[in-house]
Amino acid sequence: MPPTPTPAPIPAPTAAPTPTARAYAHLWADTRVVFGRCLRATLRSKTNMFFGMLQPLLFLALFGPLLTSLDLGVNGSSWQTLVPGVLVQLALLGGSYVGLGLLMDRNLGIIDRMRVTPVSPLALLLGRTLRDVAQLFVQSVLLVLLGLAFGLRAPLAGVLLGLAFVAVLSGALAALSHGLAMRVRTPPEFAAIANTAVMPLMLLAGLLLPMSLAPGWLDAVSHAVPFRYTVEAVREVFRGHYTSGTVALGAAVTLGLAALCLFAATRLFGRARH
Amino acid sequence: MSTTSTTPPALRVRDLTHTYAATSGPVHAVRGIDLTVPRGEILGFLGPNGAGKTTTLLMLTTLLRPSGGEVHVAGHDLRRDPAAVRARIGYVAQAGGLDPACGVREELVTQARLHRMPKAAASARAEELAHDLGISALMDRPTAALSGGQRRRLEIALGLVNHPEVLFLDEPTTGLDPGSRAELWDLVRRIRTDHGTTVFLTTHYLDEADALADRIVVIDEGRIIAEGSPAALKAQHAPGPSGTLQDAFLVLTGRGPAQEPVAI
């Protein structure tokens, strides 16, 4: 026979339908909690930080010197062309694979555990994505500093603006990567999809060498890849040009892509199920 | 929402179904479950693998949208107000949900923060739970350093952070040694006695259901095929002086009780 004890006192944080302002306040507070947890996890695994930027770093160190005496068909030094490319490559590679971490957390039951709290799926997504942006931002700064050591010269305002472009792009890709990770089951499945998407996009965006070197057909195809506009805008601001059409187009495409990725990721996150 | 003075039951489930699309056509994983769980009851939810236990549990904990039917948890409609339901339940999945690199204290505090407790209250709640569940000495260890029984205690502590009215435990003693199982049974009983918490637990172990549950619900092929107290089920389906719950289970489902043998 079940005993009939008195019911426990009810904590009533979100009993009534909350007005919009309250919902936003919750979203902000919840996102901060998730961000904090994720950031502490990142800081615990110090090796991640280094290995995440190893590949772009190698391109800078071992590939960059090959370009210094070549005519790339663009204004400015080869470092002003390569460093922005490597930064966008970092956002693309780093951002696309962050979903693997989420997938592992999912398989450990961590995500389900957090979904059975009043916290919204959007806060779980944003908290993680902002952590990824923070990590990629720090890596980007280190890459720029290394670039300076190699011979990059660029105005501070241009560098800061370029880093802002890269931050928005990494946020977009990280969010999308998390969305994908909510819909696949295993890391190999995730890696297969991410690899298939990232490799051609990276080559077509003209990250390592500018598309000014490409034959007509390749240049035409690369216009369909949004990252091309981002990297060209970053190269432009690294040369100290802030008001050109290239920069405006790059900003529009990058922000548009971010909005689209965030929207898609939110949908994937909200509906996702085992 | 009801405004009558009678407290709603911990769980009221009406014609709950779940159907999903597979390449071979629709699969009816849950085919209409009706269930009322009074407050303070320990309910054992039994069934062979693939019977729909986990699917039902995922729906009751808001993780999976039901295809049909109605669920009220402590009076709150699962579809219309899932956030209110989440604020009132605790869920301990079989996977557990611990980050191996994360510290015990951090897990507890973060979970309390996710339930929107202010920082100081979250820290206090973490200490209180750790003390209650006998893991105070482990607060600064990473969860990977805990034994199986200690991990389970921490996972249950995480499920209790928000003073839930209903605690869902998915196969809570799977993989534990006999000593830890006995401790966990005591813990579940104590949670109910001290806080009046309703406990909804799935299990493969018939002796566990027998020892712990006030009432047992057996499901198979997405439907409830029997329910009653352990004694009533034995009397009805496995009569005789040596009849066990396992005999009753075998009669009811026409097969063995899942893949694992009954642990001693």
From TrEMBL, chain A:
It holds the Pfam family ABC2_membrane. The chain crosses the membrane at residues 49-70, 82-104, 133-152, 158-178, 190-209, 247-269. Keywords: Antibiotic resistance, Cell membrane, Membrane, Transmembrane, Transmembrane helix, Transport. Residues 47-272 form the ABC transmembrane type-2 domain. It comes from Streptomyces iconiensis. InterPro entries: ABC2_TM (IPR013525), ABC2_TM_bact-type (IPR047817), ABC_2_transport (IPR000412), Nod_factor_ABC_transporter (IPR051784). It comes from the Bacteria. It is found in: Cell membrane; Membrane. Its main location: membrane. It is a multi-pass membrane protein. This is Transport permease protein. Belongs to the ABC-2 integral membrane protein family.
Automatic annotation (TrEMBL), chain B:
One of its GO terms (molecular function) is ATP binding. It is found in: Cell membrane. The keyword Nucleotide-binding applies. Keywords: Antibiotic resistance, ATP-binding, Nucleotide-binding, Transport. Pfam families: ABC_tran. This is ATP-binding cassette domain-containing protein. Its main location: membrane. InterPro entries: AAA+_ATPase, ABC_transporter-like_ATP-bd, ABC_transporter-like_CS, ABC_transporter_ATP-binding, P-loop_NTPase. It is a peripheral membrane protein. Residues 11-246 form the ABC transporter domain. It comes from Streptomyces iconiensis. The keyword ATP-binding applies.
